[in-house]
Amino acid sequence: MNASVVVIGAGPAGLAVGACLRRAGLDFVILEKAHEIAPAWRHHYRRLHLHTVKSLSSLPYMPFPEDYPRYVPREKVVAYLDAYAERFELRPCFGETVKDIRRVDDGYLVETGRDTISAHQVVIATGSNAEPVVPNLPEIEDFKGRRLHSADYTDAASFAGQSVLVVGMGNTGAEIALDLAECGAPPTLSVRKGIHIVPRQLLGVPIQMIAIASRPIPQAMNDRLFPIILDLALGNLEKYGIVRPNQGILEQVDAGRIPVIDVGTVAAIKSGDIKVVPDIMRFTERGAIFVSGSSVEFDTVILATGYRPDFKKFLPAALRPDKSGVSSRASELGLYLVGFHNPVTGLLREISREAVAVTADIVRRRSTSAG
Ligand SMILES: Cc1cc2nc3c(=O)[nH]c(=O)nc-3n(C[C@H](O)[C@H](O)[C@H](O)COP(=O)(O)OP(=O)(O)OC[C@H]3O[C@@H](n4cnc5c(N)ncnc54)[C@H](O)[C@@H]3O)c2cc1C
């Protein structure tokens, strides 16, 4: 098969790139390993709503419907993505897992195991959350209860009445702990190190908009000011076992760690519905012992320990772009990443910007080489 542009992945990033390429009149194919578009959003836990506002989370050229709430629930995100694919006539080739990309002459050969596609440009949109991270926790094999990664958590129904340990307080761990607390399975949350927590809104203004508005302020000043404001909004959480890291919020974002956007977890911690414990020293047959010396018994352990991208599996190191979006060295050779830079202002917003910029770069380079 031949295509001008191969887009790998049919999540929000691949769809956004597809829509931009369609509008630019370019010939392209989208390869998706699953058998549906946006599989991640179809399978995320049920309680999930976007943490970012809908006006700053839509994909290029199609806002979320007006009657959607400010923080769009998961199933409406899925409906939006389905409508988006329909509107821009995006028909991915499903069941195609890219296994290898090779540079040939002035383009690429993309290998899926079933097919080899030759293309002038390749856009990798396989997601920063492609693979669940399962850390090597001390003596976890001793634990005889149920163990699952947050990627396999759907809702709290099957945990009612149980004692559950949630490991990790990123956005997912914080929200799953809240889900459990609200559904009769008051959890224990193991928080290994310092974290920044921000409310979803400050005085009615979405935190994402505040982050965008405060960007002209020097980072060091932002990082000094925010903790003061956040203490006023959420209270000092040290007595509940949650401390801030030494790095400021923006410094951490630069290092790839976004803050936890609170959707009610802090209140549940304060009310005692969620108990916070420190890092795990080791697991036992029925529970765990923490570095504080305390021990607790559990029925289930949920590992909310994050995800990582997996494009290294099929993209040789020599071809890898040095950044997401338009990166001078790789773009020159027609290879792009979209969706791998997660700024404090939201990944979906960044995906939109990158999709538009990458398409413009492809169009510009083609017209230059044609002229
Ligand atoms: C729980 C959760 C909540 C989030 N909430 C927000 C939010 O509120 N606001 C926000 O801005 N961002 C949010 N994000 C971050 C981000 O917007 C989402 O992860 C989004 O789905 C990223 O889109 P993507 O297309 O880059 O990746 P994905 O949605 O992961 O899509 C990647 C696609 O590539 C396919 N694929 C992977 N490898 C291959 C291969 N080798 N060959 C072919 N296909 C392949 C996958 O099957 C998948 O369909 C959230 C993320 C998570 C996990």
Class from secondary-structure proportions: alpha/beta
What percent strand?
A: 15-25%
Helix content: 25-40%
Overall pLDDT confidence: 94
Poorly predicted runs are none
Shape: globular
| Name given to the CATH architecture of the largest domain | 3-Layer(bba) Sandwich
The count of strands amounts to: 21
Strand count, sense and barrel status of the largest sheet are: 7 strands, mixed
State the distance separating the first and last CA atoms.
Answer: 27 Å
**Can you tell me the number of structural domains?**
2
Tally of individual helices = 10
Instruction: Please report the first level of CATH classification, the CATH class of the largest domain.
Output: Alpha Beta
Fourth-level CATH superfamily of the largest domain: FAD/NAD(P)-binding domain
Radius of gyration: 22 Å
- Which fold name fills CATH's third level, the topology of the largest domain? FAD/NAD(P)-binding domain
The distinct ligands, each listed once, are: flavin-adenine dinucleotide
